[in-house]
Design brief:
Layout lengths: L3 E11 L10 E3 L2 E3 L13 H14 L6 H8 L5 H10 L4 E11 L9 H12 L6 E6 L12 E12 L1
Helix pairs in contact: 1-3
């Protein structure tokens, strides 16, 4: 019998107030051409962190937090490495679909949706058509909507092998 599970992941990071900080803005493993960068011990890729959290909600093995913090202390700040740990825990499950919703005033997400979908599909070993990305400005209703950072919500659907 095929078993289907759904995982939910969330992550948010503030923008560096000092825009002279030399740190790339990475979302979904894609480098955005932006003067903005996100605060965090790691590369602060909110999309990959939210994906890892969504997978953790399926497997019960938390990656973002303890394990990722340990890796950061060892100098491993690439969120793709954290995602690899989460994916290894899936064992008998295969990702069927991923839905990603971003909230931010900037950068503009729509022009980068295709490269992000390609990157995420490659990282997860799924097809481009199984990655959905939407974005909203947040209409200034929250700190993120007022342009202070980026928030990402992810839903991952897996099926048993």
């Amino acid at each position: 019998m095929v078993k289907i599970k759904t995982g939910l992941g969330l992550d948010s990071h503030r923008f560096h107030e000092d825009q002279s900080v030399d740190k790339p803005l990475l979302l979904g493993g894609v480098n955005f051409d932006s003067a903005l960068s996100l605060e965090g011990n790691s590369d602060a890729d909110v999309v990959l962190h939210a994906i890892a959290d969504a997978i953790s909600s399926i497997t019960g093995n938390t990656i973002i937090g303890g394990k990722a913090d340990e890796l950061c202390q060892q100098g491993i700040t690439d969120s793709r490495e954290y995602l690899k740990l989460a994916l290894a825990d899936l064992e008998e499950h295969t990702i069927s679909h991923i839905a990603i919703a971003l909230e931010c005033q900037q950068p503009k997400i729509d022009p980068m949706v295709e490269p992000m979908r390609n990157s995420i599909a490659e990282l997860l070993g799924i097809t481009f058509s199984d990655v959905g990305i939407t974005a909203t400005s947040g209409e200034a209703l929250t700190d993120v909507g007022r342009g202070l950072g980026i928030h990402c919500t992810v839903i991952v659907t897996v099926v048993s092998k």
